[in-house]
Amino acid sequence: VLRVHAELLELGVDHLELGLLVQRLAQDGLQLVQLVSVQGVDHLLYLLFKISFNEVIHNPGFLLWSQLYLISRVVAGQSSLGQGHTSSQYNNTPHSSILVL
C-alpha cells in the first residue's frame, strides 16, 4: 500500500511538472509569434522607407511638389484631415504610389 501511495504521489508531482512545462511552452510560443509579428512589421516599414527614399532621390522635385500640393490644399480649404476622403480620390494625382503624410 505504501508503494502504491508513493507512486501516486510521484505521478501527481510529474503531472504538476508537466503542467508547468506546457505553460512555459505556451508562453514561449506566444513570444515567438510576437517576435515574428514585430519582425514582419519592421520589414514592411523598412521596405516602405526604401521605396519612399528611392522616390525622393530619383525625383528631386518630389519634396517641393508634395509640400506645394499640401499647402495649396490647405489654402483652398480642401484639407483631407477629417474630411473622409477615400484613397480613390488620390489615384489621379502624380506620384500616387507614394504615401503622403
Summarize this, please?
Helix content is 71%, strand content 0%. It has helices at 2-58, 61-75.
Structure overview:
It is a single chain. The protein is mainly α and 101 residues long. The chain is 71% helix and 0% strand. It has two helices and no strands. The longest helix is centred in the first third of the chain and has 57 residues, at 2-58. It is rod-shaped and about 90 Å long.
* Average pLDDT score: 77
Largest sheet: none
- Radius of gyration over C-alpha positions, nearest whole angstrom: 29 Å
Distance between the termini: 77 Å
Percent of residues in helical segments?
over 70%
Low-confidence stretches: 86-93, 95-101
Number of helices: 2
Give the topology string: H per helix, E per strand. HH
What's the topology here?
Layout: H1 2-58, H2 61-75
Keywords:
mainly alpha, disordered C terminus
